[in-house]
Structures are given as C-alpha cells and as structure tokens.
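Sanity check record (used in CI):
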Amino acid sequence: CCQRLSEGFFEQYQRARSQFVQTIAELATRPQNIETLQNAGVMSLLRPLLLDVVPTIQQTAALALGRLANYNDDLAEAVVKGDILPQLVYSLAEQNRFYKKAAAFVLRAVAKHSPQLAQAVVDCGALDALVVCLEEFDPGVKEAAAWALGYIARHNAELSQAVVDAGAVPLLVLCIQEPEVALKRIAASALSDISKQSPELAQTAVDAGAIAHLAQMILNPDAKLKRQVFSALSQMAKHSVDLAEMVVEAEIFPAVLTCLKDPDEYVKKNVATLIREIAKHTPELSQLIVNTGGVAAVIDYIGDSRGNVRLPGIMMLGYVAAHSENLAMAVIVSKGVAQLAICLTEEPEDHIKAASAWTLGQIGRHTPEHARSVAVANVLPKLLELYMDSESSEDLQIKAKKALKNILQKCTYLQALDPLLQDAPSNILKHVVGQYSKVLPHDTKSRRLFVTSGGLKKLQEIKAEPGSVMQEYINAINNCYPEEIVRYYSPGYSDALLERVENYQPIP
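Expected output for Sperm-associated antigen 6:
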C-alpha cells in the first residue's frame, strides 16, 4: 500500500513539473505575459528543471528559457546571471537531439541581443560544443547550432574570429550541401554573418569552398534560401577586388540577373546589393556587368521597385558611372538618367534622394555630353531645390550640392541653366555664370537666347566683388554684347532714360 502511495505521489509530482514547464513555455510565446513571468522569478524556477530526471521536462524547460531570453536583453542577462549557460553547454554534449536543439536555441536567444551577451556565451565554452553539434546526424541539431553560431558572429570581428577559430566554417560549408533547405538557409546566413566582418574572415569562407556551393543555389526555387545565398556572396565580394573576382569567376552572370525580377523583394534587393558590391571595385568588373546586360537589368529593377529596395540599384549605377566616361555613357544609353530623375522626385526618403543625387553627379561629371544628358532630364532645378530646402537632411544637401557642381562644371547646355540663373545662391551661381562665360563667346544663337530669356538682365543684377572670379565671368559675358545692350539691361537704366525724357526740351 505504501509503495503504491509512493508511486502515485511521485507520478503526481512528475505530472505537476511537466505541466508547469509546458504552461510556462506556452505563456512565454505571448509578449503580454513576459513581464508577469519575469516578476514571478520564473528563471530561478526553471533552472533546476534543466537537470530534471525526465528528459521531456528538461527539454521543455530549455525551450521556455529560450523563449524568455529571446524576448529582451534583461531576460537574456538573467539567464547569464543565473549560471544557466554552463549547464546548457554541458547538456549539448550529453543529452539527446531534442534537448540539444532546445539548448542551442537558448544560446542563440541570449547571444542575439548584444556583443556582451554573445561574449558571455563564448566565455562559457559554447563554441566548441556548438561546432560539435554541426557534425550531428540530425539536421535539426545542425540547424540550431548554425543559427546560434551566426548570431554570435554577427556582432563584431572579434566574435566572428572566435567562431572561425572554433572550426565552424568548413562544417558550415558542408551544411549548405545538405539536402534540407532549412539547414542550407541557416548555414548560408551564418557564413554571411562571418564574412561581413573583415576581408580575412571572408577569405576563410572562400578558402573553405563556400563560393562554388553558394553559386550553385542562385536559381534555387526557395526564396528564403536565395536571400541568404545572395547576402553571403555580397558580404564576400564587398571587401576586395580579389574576392569580388572570385565571386564573378563562379559564373554567376548572367544567371544572377534573372533574380532581379524575383517575386520576393528581399531576394531582389540582395541581388542588387551583390551586383553593387562587385561593380564598385574596378572598371573591368563594371564592364563585365555591362557586357552581360547588368546595367539595363538594374535600371529595369529600379523602375519596378519602390523605397529602400531601390537603393542598392541606384548606388550600383553610381559606382559604374564613376569609373569612366564609357561606363557612364552605358548608364545613359540604357535610360538610367530618366529612372534616377524619377527617384529624385518621387521618393519621400532623404537617403534615397541623396543616393540618386550622388549617382546623377557621377554620370554628369565626365564631359559636356554626359552633363547635357543629365541636364535635359530637368534634374538641375530639383537638385537646387533639395540643396536649398531647410527640411532636407544634411547628407542630402551635401550630395545635391556636390552633384550640381559636378554637372555644372561640364554643362554647356545653357537652356538647362536658365532656371538656376534666376534662383541659385551665390556659391552655385558662380558655377552657372562660369559656364555661360565659356559658351556664349562662341555661340551666336545662345547669345541671342540669353538676352531674350532674361539672362543678360539677371546677370547685370548680380553684385560681384571687383576682381573676383564672378566679376571676371560677368565681364567675359558682357564683352559678348554691344555696350549699349549691356547698358540697356543694367539696373536703373530705364529710370535714367525716363529722367532724360522728362528733362528733354523739345526743339520748337
């Protein structure tokens, strides 16, 4: 009788523990419950259950801790201070696959919040245990471990180096070759997090053969996998010419361009980012992209996109155009200026306008032909407006001003300059007048238009310091006209004429 009573008592105790951890794990899925659980001291109640004799109770306790730690850094800090991490690390080596997944989840949930919390995970010896998990047979355990390693590596180069030193990279490259799509995604993401930190860390992934295996997946039908693949390739390509060339040598062009039309916006954005990171390095890499139809494809992509998704495409065109006259002309011929003018006008975000202004400046700065192609798109008044608008961000004002100067220094298309002559502040006006002074002495038609458009009259109203560059420009322009014409359009001349009329004594 006593034995049955004892067995019943322990069964009841076990059921109570099981019900408790299951309830906590369920409550932890809803944000509105987190504060109440935290105030009730739930961490100290869960900790002993990680050592429970019943495996399902251990696993559920770990799951509950992970959900709590994932919610905010205070709870993640509580896991660290509660001395829970060493037990989790020990269990990664000793327990079954279900517990290993839950334990890796807790480590990831703690590490994600800050470099300090990620360092606490490293300090408790988690890296070696997580790397061992990458060699497990169960793909779910590998996935959980790869996820935790990526969350540690993403914070800074020091933590990323620690992940590399633990031997994670070759195993992550093996993981992207596994058949499970979810594992491929997380492994590619972790490689991206490692590679972004420095050229040396990116080289580690490249040396492990990551590029070739990632490149094989660029046309995979799974959108979430493609997001991570393109992210990882762009993080490798961004650091140096050599790394960018290695990515290109994996023969990703022109296949990668089809993904600029992918239904998934993140895929498209990551593809555009990859192309940008390759194009920025050298004229030769940019030319390769042009030759495969990349510039035209990116311009179409900008036209089909809105908001931040456009940004890497806009920047890519700027990098291409900056390299040489011919590459800038390739952007013009593909009708890139018209799309950039639309972005400059219709995008509400200042940083996108600033990128558009910068790119237009890179296109227009090469020759008068380049400058004219930008000027005829009527972007000069818009650039001036953005520069003078007190509501524009400082970065937008700087980039709009720089773009204006770049274009004005080459622009000989005077019709586009007329609006600026009327409205520009003195620091921009000097460049406008300078261009008139170069063109008017050699162009009869332009001299006539300058008078009829009101330009000559406006010029006489400018108050320039004697001997200044501006005064030299004005003198050069005035010398293109008869003295009486210049005098006619000078301020006060009509008053002087009227006074002569009033004072004139007719001859009887």
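The two ends are 149 Å apart (CA to CA). If this sentence no longer matches the regenerated tokens, the check is flagged for review.
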